[in-house]
Amino acid sequence: MAIPRSHQSTVALQGAPSIWMLVGALQSALWFFALPPLLKPYWSSCFADFSSSTAEMILFLLIIPFYFSYIITVALPPYLLQWNFFEQYKISRDPWPWLDRQESVRRKFWSLTYKTIAVDSFGLLFVFPVMLYAKSIVMPHPGLSFSDDEWPTYRKSCVDMASLALLHEFAFYWTHRIMHMFPQLYKFHKVHHEYKQNNCLSAQYFHPVDFVISIGGPAILVSALVRPHSITQFQFGLWLLYTNFDDHLGYAFPWSPVRWFPLACKTDSHEFHHSVNLGMYSSKLEVYDTVFGTNKAYNKWRKSRYDVTDK
Predict the structure, then answer these.
(1) Are 109 and 98 in contact, with CB atoms under 8 Å apart?
(2) Residue 150 backbone phi and psi in degrees, to 5
(3) Is the Cα torsion angle 208, 74, 168, 143 positive or negative in sign?
(4) pTM above 0.70?
(5) DSSP secondary-structure letter at 49?
(6) How many angstroms separate the most distant Cα atoms in the chain?
(7) How many other β-carbons are positioned within 10 Å of the β-carbon of residue 41?
(8) Do residues 247 and 14 lie in contact, with contact meaning Cβ atoms separated by under 8 Å?
(9) I need a labelling partner for 252 at 20 to 30 A (CA). Which of 70, 134, 181, 260 fits?
(10) Are 152 and 232 in contact (CB under 8 A)?
């Protein structure tokens, strides 16, 4: 069992005041304030020749390269280098399975990795596009706007982003919790829990049924409810993907751009969920685990491990 380990007092924790918190906040500021004006000159012209449904499909596909860029730039360096600077933020006591002394453990890891790549590809390149196509049939009204004339102000983007985040997290919390509550559904969700110690590849490792219910479903329904401008939807999609990767990274880096603000879940909360299979059904915002009381075991563990009382 991948039990998270305690940290020395000199190690900065996610959400605790430090220079790293400022680094995380700066990354978020660039994502929110700098990305839209950077893309605006090219945005509408890139989608002008496509129907609304096709444009939305292309918008989703534009997020896919981020999948690989995250792995290359954020995940692989600490995984491969194994520098003490990175390892001090490793959540689990256990060695990474690809470095384990037991050949059987290494062999099992690589077998699961090959399976994960196939399942991830199927979900992202087939299941979700099919869901988007189904949405265009069931809800044929005009979809996202790609127009420069309707380009959102920062205030509008902020309101829409907050609405998307709160609604999506509510939907994810309950679909995720339901997947744990009913054995008929958990048999699909337990595929994701084959990973007891997370790494970034496990982020999108879901049985197709689980993917439809707890991943694709909330994302598509919330977008249809809020109907943000396409640039806001693109930014939100990047945030979702980054946070999901960060949930499964295996390191609680204090400079993470999705963990520095007060309502953010900590990376170790999802590692805790995987290791003990108890509570912490949220992944991005701690709001609903707090409201519905499913964070008590995690809070007790975190206080004993880190000697903190911030939750």
Answers:
(1) yes
(2) -105, 15
(3) negative
(4) yes
(5) T
(6) 60
(7) 9
(8) no
(9) 181
(10) yes
